[in-house]
Batch of 4 targets.
Target 1
Amino acid sequence: MKKRLLLISSMSTAAVTLSLLSVSCVKLIPEFKPEILNSSQLQTIRESFVFKRTEEGKKLSIKELHQIMKKARQASENPIEFKNNKELRKYIILDFVDVNSIADGHTMKIFDPEYDPATDSIKFRVLIGCDTEPRELDEDFWLDKS
């Protein structure tokens, strides 16, 4: 009987201790606050963007390329999946640095590509930010038609 009481007592003590530890751990872990990108980091991101046609892409009209880009963008909102879309890569070279390789805690959003009839070109808007500063970079990138 004593052994059973001792076992139950030690198990309940362990359960209470573990729950207290888990509650206190939550409070001991500081919240992660990403650092705002500096001008040099923003420039690195800007310069990393490549947006041009492949040899196959040069055989298509800009409007056709725009439709291919829209379809690829609708397939995935994830920028990495978008740039690696197999159909898109046949016609468009799209590359950029992973923002989190420069500074952790940032997100990149690529908006639907737009066709501009005045310039017969394609652009897409990129928004990069974090919890601290949601609009660190908000820029349009245009198709290099060369």
Note: The chain has two domains: 1-30, 39-142.
Target 2
Amino acid sequence: MFFKKHGKAILIGLVAVIVIVIGLLVFRVLNFIGDVQATRVSDDITTQAASQSFEQLTATAQAKLCAASASCTTTPGTNLPSITKVTALTPTAIPNPTATPDTSNNKIVQRIKNGDRISVLYMGYGGSGHEGEYLTDTMMVLSFDPKTNTVTQFNIPRDLYVSVPGGPGGTTWKSKVNGILSTIMKWDKPTQDDLDPKYRFTNPQEQQAAGANLAANTVQGILGIKVDYWIMMNFNAFRTLVDKMGGVNVCVDRAFEDDNYPVNDNDQIDASVMTIKFEAGCQVMNGERAIQFARSRKSNSEEGGDFARSARQMKVVAAIKDDILKKNLVGNALGYMDALQGNLRVSMDPGDMFALANFFNSSDGKTIATSLKFDPEIMTGNNFIQEVDKGGEIGYALIPQAGEDKYGDIQAWVKSDFEHAIVRRDNAYLQVLNASGIQGKGGALTDYLYDQGFRMSETDVAALEDETYLIDYTNGAATGVLGQLQKYLPKMKVYTKTADKKPYVGAPDLVLFLGKDYKGITVP
């Protein structure tokens, strides 16, 4: 049977392709049939299909999966291209589960084989019963580069004040970026004349798809990259899925406490707050605990604020990917299907998923799935964003340091991150200590390495050393950084140690001592 034979490949393959890694779409794919087919964003970012009912698409899948189990029962159920139209198609046909589809010429598989980048916008929102149910307070772009097997993650700060290109002819209105979906979902004007035709809708499925497409097009203009697909998931799906996984193993970098975490997501029901605490170290979190870790933003420590929260959200996504690859999750397919009913929307069609399953059942695909690395990149007030007070209903907001709608620096940063993914994805900080006795050498090398994508700590001086050497507290894990440094400094000695041997809390991951023998670097 195709699904029994290739089920694990579907799971791992989609994870590796990033589309799954982002929003736990992988669990929806466990039904081995179709998807919550929403507006698909094709190669030229034109919408090809509108969303259909999860229940309709999974009813047949549930029946087929249940057929193998006597105890199972079923329940019926910037100048980037922009999205141009929202159209509804008839429900996707269910493929014959005993046959292997011919997917050799599938476009997305060919793009991966050709090394073409694939980018996905993930949006997390509260959902029904939550205050601001369609505010996408979690927004991140995950961009998969098959050439380096790297997923680069970019946060989109929820309070970023943007021009939304949703009006006729590309005219814009101003909004916080997290309110774009909500604007469309809460549309209360008597007509849709104020919307560009490609964002108009005739039913709830098209309405949500139009909002997601508009958010994706807006994000394209911010980052300067093409968004190929989008995924939306609400809190209920996230909680349930993590619980059905048996929890997710997350490594907490710093202990923190939040005394103002909401007891209820809707303060109209309960406006009280409670205290949540997280200790440093790796720990298994259930669904609610993972939500708390990913949502907390009112700690008085370094973990307070939206930027730290974005970093934690990226950490949870990466942890989920790791657990998916480590655990055999196929056996609980129906449970995951039930968890996602009505809680997940995606813009990838079933045909692409089957094609990916075939590809990732190959040796090349399995290599990608198991060796995928993540590069978390955070847009903060320390690099590209500044706080402003817009007054009125908007109040506190964020804009680029260069000014409203001026994204040139951000787009240059994105481009640089892509170019230097091999060293960026190690997420390891390097410090240069000048032990040569010649002033300025440490600073000059630090500046050069920073321009080459290295994450650099502030340089300093050290006691004189005859030879140049590196202390690696990652115990060899920072392979990209080590490899590139050895190209620059082929005679450099390397001493590996474990992280617990760092001289102080928060010390750099690697420390390079420039000795008297340092005459400069070798440029590869």
Note: Residues 426-514 form a domain with the Alpha-Beta Plaits fold (CATH 3.30.70.2390).
Target 3
Amino acid sequence: MHIQKKFLCLVIALYSLKTAHAEIQIFPAREIISMNQACRSNLKEYKMNDASVVCDFKQAISFDETQKKVEEVFRTYLKQAFIQHRIVDSENEIDNAPTYVADLEVIRADELISRKNKEVEITLPLTLSLKLTDASNGEVVYRNRAAQTNKIVVDAEALNSLETKKLIQQTFQTSFLKLTKSLTDISRPQLNYQKIETSKIGQWKSFVILDRGLEGGIGTEDELRGSQGDMIRVVHSTPQYAVAIPLTRDLKSTSFLKTSMKKENSGHKIKVPIVDVLTYQGESADLVEQYFNDGLTDQASFTVPKYNKQLNSTRLVAKNVSLVSKPYTQMDEFTPYSIRLTLMPFNDYEQEGGMFFKKSQRVMHLEVLAEMLHHSGQVIYSSNAAIKYGNSMNSHHSAHRNEIRVVKLNNSDDVKDELLQLALSKLGKDFKDHVNFKEIDLAVLASSPRNIMIPSAGRHLAKGMKIKVFRTEKINDLDVMLPIWNATVVEHNSQFTIARLDQSLVLGEVIPTRPGDHVRFQSPLRDSISSVQVIDKAQLNRLKSLFKQ
């Protein structure tokens, strides 16, 4: 099933190239992401998955004059930071070069109130995120964040006055502009712009065989532009070669160019998306994901794809720009695995003195949980982290007996955020160390026009799982693995597995399967799999509904 509304499909309907070495262009989004979403007006009450932006901030940035200034400042800073790339000022300037959308998102804007005698201290933490989104597929290829915390002190009687409200909004405005410049400055040296050339070395049916693979920087799902103006998409990549399909008619090119701003080539890794983030006190789901990814790093055996879903509801381009939509398969067809993150309510209380400390102290307790789930409901792996921080007692414990002791906080003005960052990055590292995927290769034992039989692979296969059927062909003295069918497991036991053939991957042809073809997929190692954990039916239905959004 094709879905279009969940991903940004911003491909200009012109595929002809003026030159084979076209540079990239960056288009600044027309709106600040999250400003068109609900805000939190009650600072004392929370509900599950509540807004992470308070209404005072939204009102501060919503003035037409302020919005215009922010847009101008953002464009100016982008031009200064990315001087080697082309910043597109209007839709009419967009041409056929690879296009990336730059957008600012407010992922946290909060008000924390602390009463001190006759005065009130108002802490205003603000976190912005800068994203670069590949316009051809909606994937976020780069993101970074910057945070700033300001404090203002007012008389207790003036807390709800118009003057205090105006002061809060002015503080947010100033902080927002400073963070915008800071984000563009720190992002410039971190971007990894690549230009990789590859050549066609053979063809089988509709498949184009390229002389570069993973070792040469060409990965699965990469889109390459040909010297004659045509395009191809990589559907399978090995260290030595890649297999691609044409995206345009009458493929004439024999040399192709990849331009990319990705941090790494993760085309060989299985994609495990974060589809569910449960919060209870207005924490930003986007920020939670970023903290988890900080600990996961690029060294994990899987990759967590990020798609800029929010861009669909913003005014990215004018209506007069012709756009085409590239079809996408539902995420559950990419992988049967997903990640769920849960933040328990933050607990802040006074603890009386005892054996280890004489005076009473302020204690803060935070607990987070991460789970990797299979669509069948099985919990593949889970880990939790709990931090208990006090003035004179610090301790951290998590699954697998890992422990961190918090000796000193870098930002005492925003203790909760720092503890949250510590806990989630710890969970990410735990997943990196303990969840290991490997490639499973099974030979087809028997086949029919509709089904194939393969050996049982134990818990690596499950009913409903999506797999691919490959065939090996000799092309220019090279044994090339070609993906010929998408299939779904319909029966699975300890002796054998039956898979239904769903879709031929050879354009314009239906190639019959045969014994000797192979099924290949990635699966977590047996040591990573939890033995009997299964989520209940209600949670499973919620998970499936999130995948279909």
Note: The domain at 194-260 is CATH 2.40.30.20 (Elongation Factor Tu (Ef-tu); domain 3).
Target 4
Amino acid sequence: MEARSKLLDATTQSRRWTQKLVLILPPLLLFLLRTEALQGLESEDRFRTRENECHFYAGGQVYPGEVSRLSAADHSLHLSKAKISKPAPYWEGTAVINGEFKELKLTDYRGKYLVFFFYPLDLILYSPGIFYMELEYNVEEELSRSRSTFVCPTEIIAFGDRIEEFRSINTEVVACSVDSQFTHLAWINTPRRQGGLGPIRIPLLSDLNHQISKDYGVYLEDSGHTLRGLFIIDDKGILRQITLNDLPVGRSVDETLRLVQAFQYTDKHGEVCPAGWKPGSETIIPDPAGKLKYFDKLN
């Protein structure tokens, strides 16, 4: 009897604790869930605030207020490591040079100026109406959306055909896209009359993992390729100029040459180049008295 009585007491006590837990647990769980949710929101708010403070040096959101105005359809760019007057982001990779695969890196050009430009995609025409691009999604849809790929060979050929003008001023040119070195080579081996490059005199660098284009702030996450970014890097590895074009419009070889010549002039002479400056034109002595010489002639 005594054992039975103890068992009943234990059972009764267990039931009481169960009833208490039933009463206590729901509010406790609700409190914990609300606390975690609030912490998540607070963390998200901190992230958004930090994101709003970020500035893209090579394109994208420039002012924090623009974040709220951007739609989901807008291109998504990566925060660029490329900053004017700072060392250019280091890169290395496989390039096609004179029809061969070679390892190439930024430091190979130390002591020279470098024009480093990105283009969206290689395009190879096999037969009328049939195109090949190194994409994981619908080719026709991407062509229709970007309207850009046909511009790429005109830029590469234009820079390649005038490479001696750059080399005469101690400058090299490298082109880069997210395609593989194999696609680069296939494009080079395609005749120009079929949309190919033919023999080309500048390296085509492969950025297959997109790291280089992300470091330079030109990679379009939603498209899987890059904007038309051009970067002038001086003989000390310092980034001096950034040009970003939207996809449908190519860049000017003449303007790129002019900019390189202008930066080299200021490096050598310490004077500054006014708007539209070309070699042989007047420059400005950058001090209050010296500048008057230029403005007296101008006016």
Note: The domain at 92-251 is CATH 3.40.30.10 (Glutaredoxin).
